[in-house]
Amino acid sequence: MSTLEVRHLVKDFRVRDGLRRGTLRAVDDVSFTLAAGRTVAVVGESGSGKSTVARMIAQLETPTAGEILLDGEPIGRRGRALARYRNQVQMVFQDPFASLNPYHPVSYHLERPLRIHGVARGKEVTPAVHRLLRSVELDPPEVFAAKRPHEMSGGQRQRIAIARALAPGARFLVADEPVSMLDVSIRLGVLSLLARLQREENLGVLYITHDLATARHFSDEIVVMLRGDVVEQGPSDQVILDPQHDYTKTLLAAAPDPSRHGRLRDEVRAELAAQAS
Amino acid sequence: MTDQPTDRPEVRRPARRRPSRDAKLVVGLAVVGATVLFAIFGPMLTQDPRSSDNPVLVPPQPGHWLGTTSLGYDVLAQLAEGARGSLLVGVVAGLLAIVLSLVFGVVAGYARGATDEGLSLITNVMLVIPGLPLMIVVSSYLEVRSLWVVAIILGATAWPGAAVVLRLQARSLRSRDYVSAARVAGESTPRLLGMEILPNLLPLLTAQFLFAVVLSILGEAGLSYLGLGPNGSITWGTMLNEAQGGGALTRGAWWWFVPPGLMIAVLGCAMSLINFAIDEVIDPKLRQAPTAAKLQRKARKAGLDITSPAHDDDTPRPAPASRAPDPDDHKERVQA
């Protein structure tokens, strides 16, 4: 079974404040294993280093220390080894309004990875693009293929970004807060799409999020990060139902809980009444 | 602050009254187009610009619509031939400058690190060397100067400004998500530059190109006026040089030096107009600038105090309350 393994990953950024120079440790000793067909969620607040983990796995940043192993082998960082890695590991970015080049139509965004990785050539390309569009539920594909990014909604754009990530035939998908920029009403649709594609393609998914509720729902394992450190890590249900670290408890308490809805409203009313009197 | 006076009907101004971006673009393109047509077809319709078989120094009249020079050359014929020379120098120099600024600007901005430092150093050195003196030194060093040599000299000195602008824009574009996404998709660096970054630089590139063309035409005129222009070719600059040498000013032969001077000025203006229109496409905030300025003038005339942030009524308010009434106030009230 194929695995993507992250071992003791560390990332320092050089920062300059006036004349002082220093380093900022964005990620400190993060380890986890992503297996085909499984989902690992990395949860944390803004600045916790979870996006940096995603960018290191996508090889957009080079780790300061630690290693990334694909099927037990250290990953290639250059040339054909890098191309092979990109073929296997793809990424969906947070902001679908920024991750598609406004200059190119949808068809270009999907054709390029197909051609680069030799998935389709010549006359096969257009049918392959249409298949990808149908797989992310954008129908009719001919219409969407001709559109430019600005002619589509956020949800549609994110579906294109997902289709682009799937185009090379990737086995692992890094999803960096894939729904945080989308309207609440369409988030579930995009997440369900990701879950379905994961089942169908047996993808290993790294799901970066700040939302513990969806993390529990969609993932098998949860990694909780705080300022670059992993504070808690384990099977989803265990982390949610029996949080060990104070920060996880705080995160859980901050998430709205539907079952507590009535009581919460009563508490607010009581508080307002107390203020009024 | 600028959008608040629009709430008052007496200072509202219809948007269509100011010269629109389209008007600037249309006027600019029309003038540049007319000049290009003049350069292409003018020499075919006028007499030989190098023929001195004419009456000497006659003012504009039928047959010599712009008069003749002290050596008997027809000014209109020279102007048409000069348009070819000046435009050719401008376009060749502009293209060269853009290619150089792409290499030094976009590559530096994208590459970062040592490559960036090296290319930026060269750009900065070129930027602080005064252009015209450098051109004078290089031109006077060369005995024989064709139109092409002058164009290359001008292009090689006109690029650093554009390179600085393009470098900054490329730095900003390279960190965009869509460039990262293309990298993750496996695109090569040349393709990232050519297909992802360059198309989004096009408006800026066009503006910088036009600017380089204007700069080169002016530079060529300057060089030629000093007698360092292309040997044996006719440009608007060499016409001015000959007018100066022939004492056009003291003899009152205005028809000799006004047409080339005017052509340079009008072409420069027209290209700048196109540039303004492009700038407004790049930065939509500029579109509102003239209206905003007018609104302020008008508001001031109407006796409104527009310097204080709270001018929604005449009584000055204490600082905390001077914040404009916003919808949040309303919300808070409803919740309470």
Automatic annotation (TrEMBL), chain A:
One Pfam family named in its UniProt record: oligo_HPY
Alphabetic keyword roster: ATP-binding, Nucleotide-binding, Transport
GO MF terms held by the record: ATP binding
Record-annotated ABC transporter domain positions: 4-252
UniProt protein name: Peptide/nickel transport system ATP-binding protein
Lineage: Bacteria, Bacillati, Actinomycetota, Actinomycetes, Micrococcales
TrEMBL record, chain B:
Region Disordered: start-end pairs: 297-336
Chain segments annotated as transmembrane: 25-45, 87-111, 118-141, 147-166, 201-219, 254-278
Top-level taxon in the UniProt lineage: Bacteria
Pfam families referenced in this protein's UniProt entry, alphabetically: BPD_transp_1
Chief localization: membrane
InterPro entries: BP-dependent_transpt_permease, MetI-like, MetI-like_sf
Subcellular location: Cell membrane
Annotated ranges, domain ABC transmembrane type-1: 83-275
Key words, A-Z: Cell membrane, Membrane, Transmembrane, Transmembrane helix, Transport
PROSITE patterns linked to this entry: ABC_TM1 (PS50928)
Membrane topology classification: Multi-pass membrane protein
Composition bias type Basic and acidic residues, residue spans: 325-336
Family recorded in the similarity comment: Belongs to the binding-protein-dependent transport system permease family.
UniProt protein name: Peptide/nickel transport system permease protein
Native organism taxonomy: Bacteria, Bacillati, Actinomycetota, Actinomycetes, Micrococcales
